[in-house]
Amino acid sequence: MLALAAGQPGCHRAQADTPAEAAPGRVGPEWAKQPRYAFAVTLDSKASLPSGNAAFDLALQASLELRVLSQVPDGVRVLGKLTQPAMTLGGQADAEAKKISEELEDPVVFVLAGGRVTDSWFASRLSGVSVSTWRTIFVALQLSEPKPAAAKWAAEEFDSAGRYRAAYQREPTTGAVVRTKGSYVGLLDTQGGKAPPAEMLPQIQSAETRFTLVDGLLQRSASNETVVMKFQANSTLTITNRVVLEQRPVANDPSLKPFDEAKFITRANHAAPDHPAPSPRESAEASFDGLRTEGKTFQGVVALLEERAREKQSAKKAKEQSTQDKDAAPSEEHATAFSALVAFLRSQPQTIELAMARLRAQSPAADLIVSALGAARTPAAQAALLAIIGDPKMPLALRNGALIDVGRNARPEREVAPAILAVLSEPGLAAQARMSLGSLSRRLREAGRIEEADALRPVFTAQLAAAKSPTVRADVLRAISNSGDPTLFPIVVPFFDERATGDERAAAAEALRHMQLSEVDPLLAKQLTAESDAHVALAIIGAMRTRGASAVLVPALIAVMASGTTPNVRQRAVELAVRWARDYPELRAALQEAAQKDPDPHVRSAASKSI
């Protein structure tokens, strides 16, 4: 849908008399050349269902101000701000559109390195709509620099949907650069590094951006793209985005105040390029709730979902389902009904009690109702989930589902922690309660609620000490993984000992993936090269993938590509090396070696494709 990316500074520009067929020097914008930039922004984004009905339709006019805060390796750290943003939703500047426009006045900070956005921070009140709007603007700035210099080159970049391949070409006569998106190769990391099914990847129908540069400065960027995204088995959205940035003179503002970056970062929501945006606020998501509920009633939506659930249950009992069965996959009507249910629960709080009544009546669509309460993310919806968790009369499956959903909420209410702690020792709930408590810990820290997060730390320590079996210890370590609390590093390290079980060592690797400590990468590198258990090695590679490339991890990755104990381990190492090869050229030689010499044809094929 809406996307993210970058622009950048770097080496010298090509001389004017460089022959057209020769590889140019610096290609992209030299952002470090000026302290400030200004652009006029025009943005249009629309999505339609196969029926032709609009899922959303937004437009934005604004002025974009960029201020270079500092230089970083191969790039800059930038403050971005939209002035006088004017957004419309469905062609109307209604109250919700005005709320989003107000949000868009908040600053953002992002890092442009190597022509890409490699990090970003958004004000905590920004909704998913606002973050996606910013990421769409980022994509219009992004111009991946070729390494080595070339007139044509390829790159892999991120937008708000996922990771895609792009082809670049510099026009020899005008000096303009054209980027064409080729195909998506992955979605954002919402599942802890698990790859999505290939059929769920967005399909690019057309996507081109034209960059006009003068003297190393971006003058104009114009993007047009049409992408088809599958959000249910048989349901799609066709999304069109158009973004134009036009450079404008920078206003001389003697009253410009210094920006307190450290204070902003402390309070902001961090969003790495390969991770989804922070969860949307209730009021901003409500921008589309009118479209979702128009012409529907709460009772009618629930009745449709319950009818579908009964049909699926009957088909399962009769063993009549097949790949041709129209009920084997949710229809567009079914998917639309679920979205409408979420919208009702979010925008009409009185429907929450009606939903709870259907749960108590053992609705056949009970799991969907619980999921919808989680997706609504309002305080009232959270309270309903906590009531489900604490009600022993509710089925365990629903209580566990409610635990999952409260752990995902980026803005948890203060009652969430006590509710999870209350069932931490309850059979059938304890494992999920630990995982959700870990997620809650990270959410609280991300929201700046440090004291509340710190209060949960002794729980993990006590749970790990009290665990009587390797299985439970591994569960606690995975809960620590969800928390990402770096102060728990010392209690994780002992579980890398060879006396620990393979599952414990794998869980210990997972526990380190979000910990921002300098000690983590050396430990993972050491363990990967020494590990003989394939299950553990795969867990370490997964943790490395989440953390990202570093000079410490690359040699270990090269070693396991050559000598991993199983083909699966070597193939996962090859796949990670492909992602990192642009920034670490030594991985290209290792990929060539694997393509030629690995004994397994699948590993050779994976390495050959990258070359």
Topology at a glance:
Blueprint: E1 36-48, E2 54-72, E3 75-89, H1 95-103, E4 108-113, E5 116-122, H2 128-141, E6 152-158, E7 162-170, E8 177-187, E9 203-214, E10 217-232, E11 235-247, H3 261-267, E12 269-270, H4 282-285, H5 289-293, H6 298-318, H7 332-347, H8 351-360, H9 366-376, H10 379-390, H11 396-408, H12 416-422, H13 430-446, H14 450-466, H15 470-483, H16 489-492, H17 502-511, H18 520-530, H19 534-547, H20 553-563, H21 567-580, H22 586-597, H23 601-610
Antiparallel strand pairs: 1-2, 1-11, 2-3, 3-4, 4-5, 5-12, 6-7, 7-8, 8-9, 9-10, 10-11
Number of helices: 23
Main CATH class of the domain at 31-273: Mainly Beta
User: Given the helix and strand composition, which structural class is it?
Assistant: alpha+beta
Computed CA radius of gyration, to the nearest angstrom: 25 Å
Report low-confidence residues grouped into runs of 5 or more: 1-24, 190-194, 279-284, 321-330
Major beta sheet summary? 12 strands, antiparallel
Oligomeric status: single chain
Shape: globular
Estimated helix fraction: 40-55%
Beta-strand portion reads: 15-25%
- The average pLDDT score comes to 84
Determine the CATH topology of the domain at 31-273. Answer: Lipovitellin-phosvitin complex, beta-sheet shell regions
Distance between the termini: 29 Å
**Tally of DSSP β-strands:** 12
CATH architecture of the domain at 31-273: Roll
CATH superfamily of the domain at 31-273: Lipovitellin, beta-sheet shell regions, chain A
Spatial strand arrangement across the major sheet: 6-7-8-9-10-11-1-2-3-4-5-12
